């Protein structure tokens, strides 16, 4: 069975918030990613058993026989759920940093790939694949030495051609340090990929 389109759409929502200019974006993206993992596990279980109880708990969904996440991945996603519960119930001001959030997004993709093999390589559109390369750079797996160089390239990149002009009533938005990057990723994917390739991000 193929990956439900709503799963891929939900992942893109997570990425849009992570690369937005809104306050507390890491907190919001982290919580949405946690929701995505739960939705992924429940959707997979229901595909195999239409009587599967979709009102079950997060932990029950992860351990469903039709899902059966690997032990190390299960441990990590349950840890994210515990962090999310602490943020929402124990400390309303609690949050996560951009690196922890990025790492949780990559694990969310691993959950999707576990449930529907090779989704990230065969079903994700180019803009999502591009965004995930940047997420990798900011995750605990990424190369710290490349981050500043990449940020500089994103800020200095010429995003408009000479023929393109800002309308009289329009507002020109310059990419900051991750601010509004998803606008560039969605509208100018090849240019963002140029920046990634020039820096050496795989």
Question: Can you describe what's shown?
Answer:
The chain has 202 residues and is an all-alpha fold. The chain has a domain at 5-142. The chain has helices spanning 5-18, 25-48, 58-62, 71-90, 98-115, 119-122, 126-138, 144-156, 181-187, 189-199. Helix 1 (5-18) runs antiparallel to helix 5 (98-115) and helix 8 (144-156) packs across helix 10. The longest helix has 24 residues, at 25-48. It is globular, with a radius of gyration of 18 Å. The chain starts with a helix and ends with a helix.
Instruction: Give the helix level as a range of percent.
Output: 55-70%
How many individual helices? 10
Low-confidence spans = none
Radius of gyration, CA atoms, in whole angstroms: 18 Å
From the N-terminal CA to the C-terminal CA, the straight-line distance is 29 Å
Outline type: globular
Helix and strand sequence: HHHHHHHHHH
Give the class from helix and strand content and strand pairing.
Answer: mainly alpha
Estimate the strand proportion.
Answer: under 5%
């Amino acid at each position: 069975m193929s990956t439900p389109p709503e799963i891929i759409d939900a992942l893109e929502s997570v990425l849009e918030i992570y690369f937005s200019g809104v306050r507390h974006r890491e907190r919001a993206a982290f919580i949405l990613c946690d929701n995505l993992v739960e939705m992924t596990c429940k959707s997979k279980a229901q595909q195999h058993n239409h009587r599967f109880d979709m009102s079950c708990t997060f932990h029950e969904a992860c351990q469903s026989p039709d899902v059966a996440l690997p032990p190390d991945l299960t441990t990590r996603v349950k840890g994210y759920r515990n962090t999310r519960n602490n943020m929402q119930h124990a400390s309303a001001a609690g949050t996560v940093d951009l690196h922890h959030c990025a790492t949780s997004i990559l694990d969310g993709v691993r959950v999707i790939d576990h449930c529907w093999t090779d989704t990230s390589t065969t079903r994700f559109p180019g803009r999502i694949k591009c965004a995930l390369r940047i997420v990798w750079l900011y995750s605990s797996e990424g190369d710290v030495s490349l981050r500043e160089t990449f940020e500089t390239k994103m800020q200095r990149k010429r995003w408009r051609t000479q023929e393109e002009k800002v309308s009289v009533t329009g507002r020109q938005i310059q990419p900051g340090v991750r601010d509004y990057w998803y606008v560039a990723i969605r509208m100018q994917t090849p240019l963002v990929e140029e920046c990634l390739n020039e820096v050496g991000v795989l």
